[in-house]
Each structure stands twice: as C-alpha cells, then as structure tokens.
Amino acid sequence: MKTINISCRSGNSIIAFGELPELIRVYLPSERIVVVTDSNIYKYYKHLFKTISFDYIENSNVPFDEDTSIGNNDSSETNLITDKIIEIPAGEDSKSFETIEYIINKFIEFGVDRSYFILGFGGGVVCDITGFAASIFHRGLRFGFIPTTLLAQVDASIGGKNGINFNNIKNVCGIIRQPEYILSDYRTLQTLEQSEFENGLSEIIKTALVADSELYDIIEAFSDISNLQMLEQIIFRTAMAKAKIVESDETETGLRKILNFGHTFGHAVESIAKISHGRAVGIGMIKALELSVKLNNLDPEILIRVKKLLIKFNLPYEIEIDQKPLIDKILKDKKKESDKMNFILLDKIGKARIKEISIREISNNPEFC
Ligand SMILES: NC(=O)c1ccc[n+]([C@@H]2O[C@H](COP(=O)([O-])OP(=O)(O)OC[C@H]3O[C@@H](n4cnc5c(N)ncnc54)[C@H](O)[C@@H]3O)[C@@H](O)[C@H]2O)c1
C-alpha cells in the first residue's frame, strides 16, 4: 500500500493507494459511518455495503488488459461498511443547496452526531457535496472519500476544496477543509464510461502542464489506457503533484492558483454549454495556452502539442459559444478580485505563472473568449 501525506493548517490528509477491501479495513472506523454516494455508483457498488468482494463487476467499460477484480472473490465474506447510505442523483446538478438540504435531513434522520464519520463514495460531485455537508453539520464532522472516477482520484478528492454551484455559477459556495482519508483504488475505474475516463485525463494533462514536465512526457507516451502499470503510475504522480502544491498553499493565496489553469474559461463553458468538467477544462486549457503564446511568449509549438494530446484522448479543444454570456460568466467567476482577475499562463511545460489582468481589459478584449 502506497500513501501520500498532506499536512495542512486545517488538518492532515492521507491518500492511500491499494485494494479497496484492505484500505477500508485499515482506515475506516468500524462503526458510525454514513456513506454519501450517487445513483450510478450505488447501482454498481451497492454490494460493497454487504460484502467487500468485488467479483460482481460485470459491466466493465474500460478495457483493462488483465483481471483486476477486487478482493478475493469470496462473496460469502460479509463486511458491512454501514446501512446508513445517502444516495443522491448522479450528475453536476446535484452540487446544489437542495442536495445539501437533503443530506442534512438524512443526517438528522440517521441520528448523526459528532462521533460519526462521513464517507463520500463517488466522483468529483460526490466528493464536493460530501465534504461540504460534513463540514457544516454540527460545525464539522470527520469525513473522507473513496474517489471512483479518474478525475476524482487525481484531482477532485485531493486538497480539501468542497464546493457547490449556485445560480449556475460553478463552485461559488464552499469551504476548504481536508478529508481525513482518500482511499484510492484504480480498479474502481473498471466500471467507468470511456468518456468519463477521458475527462480525468484532461485534469491530469493540466497538472502536468503547470507542475510536472516529466509527467507530461509520460502522458504523451501513454496511448494504451489498458496499460494498468502506467495508469497506476500516472494516478500516483498526478496526486503527488497536487498534494505538494496544496501542502505549500492550502488556502490558495499563491502557488495553488496555478491548478486553476484553464478553469476560468473552462468553468464558464461548463456552465453555459452544459458539458462535462473535464471536457470544459480541456477547452479552457487551450484558451489559456493561446493567451500564454500572446501575453507570455510561450512557444507556440506547445499549443500544438497539447491540442494533439487532447485529440488523442478524444477531448475537444474548442467550442462554438456566444461571447457575451461567456464574458458575463467569466466576470462572475470566484477568481475575480475587485477590478482584476488572476489568469494562469504557462512559461513552459511544467511551469506556470499567475498574471493579474484588469476586468476592463478582459471586457474589452475578444481574445479572452
Ligand atoms: N474540489 C476540487 O478540488 C475539484 C477539482 C476538480 C473537479 N472538481 C469537481 O468535480 C466534478 C467532476 O467530477 P467527475 O468528473 O468525477 O464527475 P461525476 O462525479 O459527475 O462523475 C461522472 C459520472 O461517472 C459516474 N461514476 C463515478 N464513478 C463511477 C464508477 N466507478 N463507475 C461507473 N460510473 C461512475 C457518476 O455517477 C457520474 O455519472 C465537477 O463538479 C468539478 O467541479 C472538484
């Protein structure tokens, strides 16, 4: 079992990589757990709450090239995590105050008190909503995650940002509070739709671009997603890169901002065009790279390389969208501070910088859209 420790002012976080049954046994408290999950995960993994054998996974979408079934296939072994399960509808629309209200009502119904541990079991949506609900109930309960999408394993579960959307503005309400544990098992990705797998690759490319040039080379060479050894290495390395950044700047006053590379434009596109987070970030990264070429003398060859990489992973790099709503949305982004906004520009692969740009310049300049 490999681990990464993140030590922050608001608390410490352990990312543990391994087989879920073992991770659960080692890290989860044996009682007083409430699981928050979504309808898809529950469909695939509900047996986990009765047994820790994963031999029932039949609907594998990602073509793994070896037998990756989790556990020892002894389904007679029952290891009930909990019978207190809160299932929310799958999808981005669940990141809302309505869902928070629903979860809080369930906490009350289950008699949850401060001795309880709240486990988010799902993708980035479940992680965000679980961390937020756990942090506001009784002024903060212990919580942790089992991230089940590639995007959540490399990004959304890590770093303690737990946000929800409001008024069609992404992540505009939220808190920063670290999950105690993140239990990461790439085998859960077996049931993921191919397109969801690709969404995760987009955030991996982002982390590599801003923080780890060797990781970028590894991803460029990564063409066979069924290569488990490589996938494991990529997930670990991306998580490590994010963990280091979070540890050095938990509250995003400096370095952590670079992880927002492509996100100002990406979030606006995601809200308006209603496309997935990963795909919107891919489009946002290309916009940020174009700006980097214009404003930061970035080698245009890098823009071409990243476009090729997105195409290789079936990710879009552009979208037809009206400029006016896009500008309006960008100006409502939470990264706006007074009359300016921070944009993340690339110096070279593996190195980014923060550039303040005035709102007037953004509003008057079509190249920001
Ligand atoms: N808090 C952060 O730091 C942070 C960072 C990046 C992204 N995010 C957020 O994460 C969200 C996107 O996360 P996501 O891409 O994981 O989306 P998601 O949580 O909506 O999951 C995508 C889909 O995959 C399904 N799914 C999840 N795991 C599965 C599995 N193992 N097998 C089968 N289906 C499965 C889900 O039910 C859903 O339909 C966005 O809301 C984004 O804002 C947060």
Helix-strand blueprint:
Elements: E1 2-8, E2 11-17, H1 20-27, E3 33-38, H2 39-45, E4 85-88, H3 97-110, E5 117-122, H4 124-136, E6 142-147, H5 150-156, E7 161-166, E8 169-176, E9 181-184, H6 194-211, H7 213-221, H8 228-248, H9 263-273, H10 277-296, H11 300-312, H12 323-331, E10 336-337, E11 340-348, E12 351-358, H13 359-364
Parallel strand pairs: 2-9, 3-4, 3-5, 5-6
Antiparallel strand pairs: 1-2, 7-8, 10-11, 11-12
Helix pairs in contact: 3-4, 4-5, 5-6, 5-8, 6-7, 6-8, 6-10, 9-10, 9-12, 10-11
The protein binds nicotinamide-adenine-dinucleotide.
Helix share, percent: 40-55%
Please indicate the count of domains: 2
Strand content: 15-25%
Helix vs. strand class: alpha/beta
Q: Briefly note the CATH topology name of the largest domain.
A: Rossmann fold
Give the overall average pLDDT. 89
* Poorly predicted sequence stretches spanning 5 or more consecutive residues: 51-60, 62-78
Ligand types: nicotinamide-adenine-dinucleotide
Query: What characterizes the major β-sheet?
Result: 4 strands, parallel
CATH class of the largest domain: Alpha Beta
Could you give the order of strands across the largest sheet? 4-3-5-6
Please, how many helices? Answer: 13
A few lines on this structure:
The protein is an alpha/beta fold and about 375 residues long.
Keywords:
alpha/beta; three-stranded mixed sheet; 369 residues; four-stranded parallel sheet; binds nicotinamide-adenine-dinucleotide; Dehydroquinate synthase-like, alpha domain; Rossmann fold; 20% strand; 13 helices; 2 domains
How would you describe this structure to a colleague?
The protein is of the alpha/beta class and 369 residues long. Helix content is 42%, strand content 20%. The strands form four sheets. The chain has a four-stranded parallel beta sheet. A hairpin with a 2-residue loop joins strand 10 (336-337) and strand 11 (340-348). Helix 4 crosses helix 5. The chain is globular. The relative contact order is 0.12.
